[in-house]
Every structure is written in structure tokens, then in C-alpha cells.
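Page 42, continued from yesterday. The earlier attempt failed because a stray header line got pasted into the input along with the sequence. Redoing it now with the clean sequence only.
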Amino acid sequence: MTATLDWYGCATFRLKTQGLTLFLDAYIDRVPGADGPPGASADDIEDCDYILVGHSHFDHIWGADRIALRTGAKVIGSYETVRILANAGVPEDQLLPVSGGETIPLGSGVSVEVYPALHSCLWAGYDDQNPSFDCLGDKHVDYFARRACESDLLSGLGKLSADIDVHMRRSDQGCRGDGGTLCYVIATPEGRLFFKDTPGHWSGIMEKIDADVGILAASGRANVDGEPIQGALNDFLVSEAEFLGLKRVVLCHHDAWLGPIFPGGNVAGIREEFAMRRAGCEVLELEYVDGFDVFSGLMV
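This time it went through. C-alpha cells are written below.
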């Protein structure tokens, strides 16, 4: 039975495998002018068994409550994710709180392994239009300065246009930061799919994970063991592929998910870096909702 992957923009995907339907994140609704399937909304989703939420920011969790309530899907996520969704009316028996180290059987030979991860460094400078650029500095920024910078960034988004202001207020579910970022390996009879919706990791954890295909976030200043990478996003993504032993990378979070405010990243440099350092690893940018055959052509 073929495993297929549909990209809904930002870091949201639908995985169909072994008769199960999984959503990886749930942020489908967009502001006018943003990339994404025309007219798509979380309210349109009729079939879902599980939702895996990487972290609790609005551009990852918003929509999970509506999908869960409409379909009866169970949601796997951090304790902050579970708090938000419980407040939104999702029944407790549909909520599976995790923090890393858990393996959850989903049925039909499919399981999910949960690992701790890190969010990108929102307090540190970066350039999405040039992922080959070596970003330096911004190290050892203390807790209070980080929180202040992140708060300014998020509060500033709603002041940029009327459409975005409405969008931000609708999607504000009272998250307390990222809530503890997680990454997942979905183990299927066809292969192992890694999913992480923001560029940050603990090196010691990543080197113990293996997967065949990886969904990796290609936007922002990468976070390595709690500090911003001293180098380029390209380097970070190749290092993740090396840690995991990936044969194929599917990029995410690089599109214009919030309209002209985030015009989308330039991923050409990422392709070039992989070609130089990990030529055997295929790098893909999916079209929206195109039913991509995840493990096709791979020896797994």
C-alpha cells in the first residue's frame, strides 16, 4: 500500500499510509495573498485519524482543534499543545500529551516515535533569501532578552496589514511560546519518515535517530543545542540529513505562508549544498496537495 504525502503549505502535511490518515501540523487557513491551495481551510478536512503537532505556535497548531472535533482524530503534541486544544473543546480522550521518548502504536503496522527538538532562534538574525549566508553572532543571549525579542516579533506581525491583523487575532489561542518543540519518526511498513517543523535540534538526540525520508524546515536561524548556528542554514540542513541517514529530503516552511510579509525563501543554495556534500540525497519542493509517493524509488 503506497504512502502518499500532501503539502498544505507552511509545515503542514497529510500523510496517508496503511489505511490511516495523519496530519503533520494543522495550519491550513491562509491570509489573502499567501501561497497555498486556493480556498483550503481546516474546516474542509473530513478524514483524519491522528494529528502530530510539532510545536504550539499558531502557524503549526491552529486548525488542529477543528480537525479533531470534526473527525474524532487523536492529537499527539506537547503538554502546551494539549492545554490549548482542551481549552478549545477537544475531548480529553482525543489528546495524547508527549514530551519525547514515547513510541505510540497507531495500528496497521504504523507507529510514531517522539523526540525532543528545539525551535529556531527567533531572537537571532538570518536571511531567508540567502540560505548560503553565514550568520554569525547572537550567541549567549540571556532568557529575558530572548523572550523580549520573540514577543516583539509576534506582536509586530498583526500591525503590518489589516488582513494579517485579523488573521493573527483569529489564530491567537493563547500559546505560551512554542510549548516545547518535538520531532517525530513515523515508522511504516514501507519506510521511516522524519518530521520536524522548525530548524532546531539537540545534536546528541539527532545522531541516535535514523530515517529514510525527512521533512525539514528551510526557514529561519537554525538552533544547535540551544544557540544560533554560526554558519548557514544550508550547512544545518545537510548536517541533519547526515545525522539521520536520509535518502530524500522534503522541504517545508519556505513558502510565502503569510503573504508578502514572508515572501518565501530561496532554496537554490540548499540544493547546491546537498549536491556538493550529500549528492545521493534527493531534495524536493512539493507542489501543494499533489499526492507525492513518499518512499517511491528508495531502497528501504
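Notes: The chain has a mean pLDDT of 93.
Reminder to self: strip header lines before submitting.
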